[in-house]
Inverse folding.
């Protein structure tokens, strides 16, 4: 589990390697990751956009940007949380993900919330670089 807090918004990520969806002989490795976004502050915020930087074991990086998460732009009041699960395929047996969410406060101002860097490690990677 990986966790980081920015402006009283805590983001916790738990990655899991999906052996049943992976095919190491074809250089296809798949992970699921569960994200929990918790508002520990006193103001209501809305998640507007996401930005991911995904790096595989060969050093190739891809960036993913888009509105919301899993088709939603959740509104989080004080003490509320939102959870979702997504996935990531790679052509290498390990990698790293890191990113940020753009959140909007009650006044309409946007601010970035860090998504902690987390390792994508499969049992097929014998040297575990992450």
């Amino acid at each position: 589990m990986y966790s980081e807090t920015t402006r009283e918004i805590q983001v916790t990520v738990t990655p899991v390697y999906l052996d049943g969806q992976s095919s190491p002989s074809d250089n296809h490795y798949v992970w699921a990751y569960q994200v929990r976004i918790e508002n520990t502050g006193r103001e209501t915020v809305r998640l507007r956009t996401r930005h991911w930087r995904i790096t595989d074991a060969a050093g190739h990086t891809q960036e993913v940007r888009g509105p919301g998460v899993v088709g939603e732009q959740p509104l989080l009041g004080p003490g509320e949380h939102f959870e979702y699960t997504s996935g990531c395929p790679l052509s290498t047996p390990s990698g790293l993900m890191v990113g940020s969410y753009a959140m909007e406060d009650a006044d309409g101002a946007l601010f970035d919330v860090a998504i902690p860097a987390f390792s994508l490690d499969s049992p097929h990677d014998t040297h575990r670089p992450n």
Summary: The longest strand covers residues 45-56. The beta strands are 2-6, 9-17, 29-39, 45-56, 61-67, 75-76, 81-90, 94-104, 110-121.
